[in-house]
Amino acid sequence: MAEDIERTTIRTVAWRLLPLVFLLYLLSLVDRVNLGFAALTMNKDLGLSPYTYSLGVAAFFFGYIPCEVPSNLILERIGARRWIGRIAMTWGIAASGMALVSGERSFLLARFLLGAAEAGLFPGMLLYLTYWFPRAYRARVNAALVLAIPASGALGAPIATSLLELNGVFGLEGWKWLFLLEGIPTVLLGFVVLRLLTDRPANAIWLAPENRAWLVATMARERTSVEAAHNPLSVRRGLVDPRVLLLCFTYFAFGTISYSMGYFLPLIVKGWGVTNFAVGWIVAVPSVVGICAMLAGSYFADRIEDKRPFLSALMILCAIGWIGMGFYATSAWALIAVALVEIGIGIARPMFWTVPPLFLSGATMAGAIALISVFANFGGIFGPVVIGWLKTTTNSFSGGLYYVACTAFASAIAILVVRISPRVARAVGAGR
Questions:
Q1: Cβ distance 123 to 72 under 8 Å?
Q2: Which of 366, 8, 362 is nearest to 213 (CA)?
Q3: Helix spans in 271-307 (H)
Q4: SS3 at position 393
Q5: CATH number of the domain bearing residue 343
Q6: What does the pLDDT look like over 47-101, one tens digit per residue?
Q7: What is the pLDDT of residues 296-355, one digit of tens each?
Q8: Distance separating alpha carbons of residues 114 and 118, to the nearest angstrom
Q9: Which end of the chain has fewer CB atoms at under 10 Å, N or C?
């Protein structure tokens, strides 16, 4: 009977929340990295060098990073429905506003405003999912969220390059149509969030009373077990806890990998001499591989007691892939290396986010998740800027790609050093 209630509850919650959460993150990624496809024509129209373009990539994060931790703390206080709905509306407006860019200064300003508008979405949704799903389901649930990352490549790439074909319609360049049409759906989705998202299990009137009672009790019990195994930390102490800082460094590498891929892979593929339209379809291929790897890997990840060694191996696989990309940067053989990176990061990302709840809870977890996510954005600054600078100074992408490989290797070591309670790890491995 208890197992039937658990199964029914998790299924109902998943079908209610995960499609909306997935769609939110998918659109945020599309609005964030469509710059890589717009750059195929925009850079020439605006006279942007590879280095200036990379500064525009970084400008997004200068707006995003300062707002990340405060945003999650606000969400914890006022609820996800109102706060995430607000985020979606403002970032959608800012994303469409990129169509108004006319030069270097307006380009940098628009990117900064987009980052500030979108700040807090990803860590906010990660935190939100910890309110609703027990530990035994975390890797699969996190996969449903971060599946949007490879999906944004598989779906967003061909859509973006197709929108570039609207060049000249009503006198607008194709890259302006790209920004305009990909920002509007996000604004509309913000109103959907205000209507459908529920803040906490106790407020879920769409769950049967016995299912709601089971979920509330289960989440409370798990929170108590974490606090019993690890002394409860204040928000301030949690942000400087060595385990959190190690996870910050590890996620710095995740951000370096993802954003470097998103912002520069289209330009690398374009260097092979293919058309803009073909670029989108070529970039989509390794993204599909990443989707398959994430779906398969997340299912087995919830059955692994200690995920750290596996996470380390996956980051080494990413490093090998980036070395291959650097070696074959001017050849289509690089796609094999890209696929290795997509497999490694695809499986690792949902596994990674099962680690913080093993020793954090409440407002401390809200702040720590946001801080860890911030470091991915630092990776989004350093990775693209290093690649853009080296491309400008050496006329080759290879040096920057080797830099990304080094960060992946370093993160493989860092994740092994994180200490967690063996008792909590065994509880997770047992699925209860």
A1: yes
A2: 8
A3: 276-301
A4: helix
A5: 1.20.1250.20
A6: 888 888 888 888 988 888 888 888 888 988 888 999 999 999 999 999 999 999 9
A7: 777 676 677 777 888 999 999 999 999 998 888 778 788 899 999 999 988 898 888 888
A8: 6
A9: N
The torsion region of residue 49 among left (phi > 0), alpha (psi -120 to 50) and beta comes to beta
DSSP code string of 98-122: GGG--SHHHHHHHHHHHHHHHTTHH
Give the sign of the dihedral formed by CA 357, CA 360, CA 362, CA 363.
negative
Q: Is 230 exposed, middle or buried (0-12, 13-18, 19+ CB in 10 A)?
A: middle
Instruction: Give the count of beta carbons closer than 10 Å to the beta carbon of residue 73.
Output: 16
Q: What is the pTM of this model?
A: 0.70
Contact criterion met (CB below 8 Å) for 307 and 414 = no
Which helix (H) or strand (E) segment holds residue 57: the answer is: helix 50-78
Distance CA(429)–CA(432), nearest Å, equals: 8
Number of domains composing the chain: 1
Domain that holds residue 305: 2-429
Query: What are the structure tokens assigned to 275, written together?
Result: 């058309």
Q: According to the model, what pLDDT value does residue 271 have?
A: 82
The C-alpha atoms of residue 381 and residue 383 are separated, in whole angstroms, by 6
How far is CA 161 from each of CA 23, 27, 279, rounded to the nearest angstrom?
A: 20, 16, 7
Q: How far apart are CA 103 and CA 56, in angstroms?
A: 11
Q: Residue 216: count other Cβ atoms within 10 Å of its Cβ.
A: 15
> What does the block give as tokens for 376?
């991915």
For residue range 190-227, list pLDDT tens digits in order.
Answer: 999 999 999 999 999 999 999 999 999 998 888 777 66
